[in-house]
């Protein structure tokens, strides 16, 4: 029998609870891929997968549901195919779109537990607010260099409920917490934190709330194996309390993401660069690969921009690009101070779509 070993551990009744449960995983990346594998393996009956992105070559080292043949495919399509091959008993639902205020409530509605595998603060706060309003348990996970964090939100314990905003009431500045694309990550770290998250999901589904990370933030350092637990309480936080307020809340602005300063599609970048005296500026370091070949880009690393920016005076329309939009936004903010009369943009998607594979 497929689940014999874990039934020996926690009993047939708990296995039945898993088979009857529904879990939504938001983000099919470094956290989401191991999460989905584990949740399918333990017998969660229904899994939902939310991700708008396509598989790229740099995903393969940590996103274990994909192989080289998946490059260019929608992540949700590739993941569903792999998960179905592993366990035909799992019901799988793919949502190949970005979460927004318009679709978040309908997306989470049918699920017992939601898991945050995102790498975007605007989406994280949106998902947290929606789950809090809908009273959906949310299992949080985050990565930074050699460390990871895990916690459980929106579950009542000791007479009160806590959420992501109780832990992080104010969004960090863009330069304070770089994404994995910007800071780098080892697959051992993302996989380990995903295992912790999956373990918390199982606890919630079988009702083991006493041992779940409710009102508790787990911090784990994979270099020295230091594990820290921090207790936190409900706060007098300011947050949307209805679906209507979520619709009206400006999440990009709250997360310090300037609206209007970013080009979000290759088509928009194409149009921008067709203008007279337009230039694409690659602010990655000289040794970072691969090089952009869709356009002729000017290499001007962020590290030397403060001393070499004057060469940009020759252009009227300037768009900065890096790996994932963090350094390019720093370059844009610097350029606003010295080139205030120029048309300045940052390309949000980073260099990947600008390289011919």
UniProtKB/TrEMBL annotation:
InterPro entries assigned to the protein according to its UniProt record, in alphabetical order: Rhodanese-like_dom (IPR001763), Rhodanese-like_dom_sf (IPR036873), ThiF/MoeB/HesA (IPR045886), ThiF_NAD_FAD-bd (IPR000594), Ubiquitin-activating_enz (IPR035985)
Domain Rhodanese positions: 274-356
Alphabetical list of CDD domains matching this protein: ThiF_MoeB_HesA_family
Pfam families: ThiF
Gene3D superfamilies per record: NAD(P)-binding Rossmann-like Domain, Rhodanese-like domain
Domain of life, per lineage: Bacteria
Keyword check for Lipid metabolism: no
Molecular-function GO term, any one: nucleotidyltransferase activity
Keywords: Nucleotidyltransferase, Transferase
Any GO CC annotation of this UniProt entry: cytoplasm
SUPFAM superfamilies: Activating enzymes of the ubiquitin-like proteins (SSF69572), Rhodanese/Cell cycle control phosphatase (SSF52821)
Keyword Nucleotidyltransferase appears in the UniProt entry: yes
Protein name: Adenylyltransferase/sulfurtransferase
